[in-house]
Amino acid sequence: MKNETKGMKRIYLILIIGLLTLKGYSQQGEWTWMNGSNVNDAPVWGTQGAFDPANTPIGLYEACQWTDLNGKFWLYGGLDSGTFNQYSDLWEFDPAINQWAWIKGPGVVQEFPVYGVQCVPSPANTPGARAFGVATWVDNDNNLWLFGGLNNQWAGVFGDLWKYDIASNEWTWMKGPQGFNYSNGVYGAQGIPDTANFPPARSETNATWTDSLNNLWLFGGDSYWGAHNDLWRYNIATNTWTWIKGPNTVSDAGHWGTLGIPDTANNPSSRLVYAKWKDHEGNFWLFGGANNGSNTLGTYEDLWRYNPATNVWTWMSGLNSLSFPGYANGYCTPSTQNKPPGRFENRACFQTYCNSDHFQFFGGGYDINASGKYNDLWDYDVSTNKWTFINGSMTLNQPSVYGIRTVSSPANQPGSKMGSIGWVDPVTQNFWLFGGIVHWPGNHVNEMWRFVPDTACSLLCNSITGIKETNKYKVEISLFPNPNNGRFTLSQLEIRNYEIRIYDILGQEVYTQAIINQQSSTINVSQLSNGIYFYQLTNGRETYRGKFIKQ
């Protein structure tokens, strides 16, 4: 199923196509209906383990999502629209060939979990059918992780942690109780790891991050008892949860503090949260979410930053109140006045790999009763603290305009939806959008869309060649050969007192080296896995960025 040589050829082809076509798109970028149905959501399973242009999952709401370290997209579980049953199938999507492969699972609804022995992988193991905001991560070793979720037919919430090994095609139950769990978890002492600790069972969150030390982080979500705003860290090496920050109670009002000012007392309020990112400095970010309190139902449009080194939250943007209608100063116009409307279930969030400090999200629900949904696309620039309205409409409940499948057009537009999932292709920088719910109840879709950003529209991805990048001082940095086997040379007119940092496609820092008083420097990262990487060369005043391929 895997072929590295063919994969690299596809990467080169996509790079060439991207360079030839990007200039032709209109100002806000263009959507293309790429896969799935615009009439119904019937699945096509095909042969397990085999890609095929006819394959497609059923229309799914709030499925699990991952982008692996090789740039492939994965989904698991989700809720279908006809029977409101949940699935337990694992799918892989290859954006280079626009095809799905059904990788694992029974192809039927409502499969019960098979736990096996804790920490022991087995072909028979499965997390079972689940949906509704399952927390997911990709670790630094390219394993897929999930925690929690809900099965509405069984009226149960999960509190178990699972790992999927792509190479062996096996699930492993790693931590947490079997089956449904209505307990309050075991918090232990804040900041102190303990093998007895585990978070309360929860769903309705994907505020998750993987740090540079390969720890998995989790914030908030909805449990049987109410919404949380606790922050947890899981250490893979020791199989241990640690309660890091926030209360061990539900429905907490939080503490915003002063806009833009870090404070140890700050903490986002209890909420059902979705949009999340991580910047190149390793800070965690989250946006919006729903307040599930009994007296004040509504959605937020606040943006938060968490620094894991200092254990401090900072309220960065938006209001500390519910259901703000939003404002946009036109398309593609960054402004401190711009504010996305409050929302939740905007799990379709993206991050442009050419600049890890630009965050994007699509759509989501206006309120927790699912009475309105958006199809707008927004970009946030960390360096300027400005939002940019990129595409779509700020008017609720817009219909889809499909056009012709695989044919791009400025008129094409996904309809308003919530509970969709999204990825970024690290080679082309294109956004991909799958599934979600158009109306409630029912009308879950299995359509796949691709968005090609316009480089003039504030996304700062002005080149996808991956060979040379030019900074604002017009000083050219050359990295050669590219692609390479892990050994390459960086050359500039004069490289003096710089530091090079290398990141994988998830933004994890994987290499650092000082460069002193040299016109060129040979870098050896042969120990890294094959794939796409990004480098940052900085001396504290000037910064240069580029991309290379190790093969």
Give a description of the structure.
The chain has one helix spanning 4-21, and strands at 30-35, 64-67, 73-76, 90-94, 99-104, 135-138, 144-147, 150-151, 156-157, 161-165, 170-175, 207-210, 215-222, 227-235, 240-245, 275-278, 284-292, 297-307, 312-317, 349-351, 358-365, 373-381, 386-391, 421-424, 431-434, 448-452, 468-470, 476-480, 487-495, 498-503, 509-515, 518-524, 531-538, 543-550. The protein has 551 residues and is mainly beta. The protein starts with a helix and ends with a strand. It has a 4-stranded antiparallel sheet with strand order 1-26-25-24, with no helix packed on it. Strands 2-3-4-5 form a 4-stranded antiparallel sheet, with no helix packed on it. Strands 6-7-10-11 form a 4-stranded antiparallel sheet, with no helix packed on it. It contains 1 helix and 34 strands.
Précis, in short:
The protein has 551 residues and is mainly beta. It has one helix at residues 4-21, and strands spanning 30-35, 64-67, 73-76, 90-94, 99-104, 135-138, 144-147, 150-151, 156-157, 161-165, 170-175, 207-210, 215-222, 227-235, 240-245, 275-278, 284-292, 297-307, 312-317, 349-351, 358-365, 373-381, 386-391, 421-424, 431-434, 448-452, 468-470, 476-480, 487-495, 498-503, 509-515, 518-524, 531-538, 543-550. The longest helix has 18 residues, at 4-21.
Specify the number of helices. Answer: 1
**In percent, how much strand structure appears in the residues?**
35-45%
Characterize the main sheet: 4 strands, antiparallel
Rg: 22 Å
N-end to C-end Cα span: 18 Å
Provide mean pLDDT, rounded.
85
What is the count of β-strands? 34
Shape designation: globular
Share of helix, binned: under 10%
Helix-strand category: mainly beta
List low-pLDDT spans: 1-27, 462-475
What is the spatial order of strands in the main beta sheet?
A: 1-26-25-24
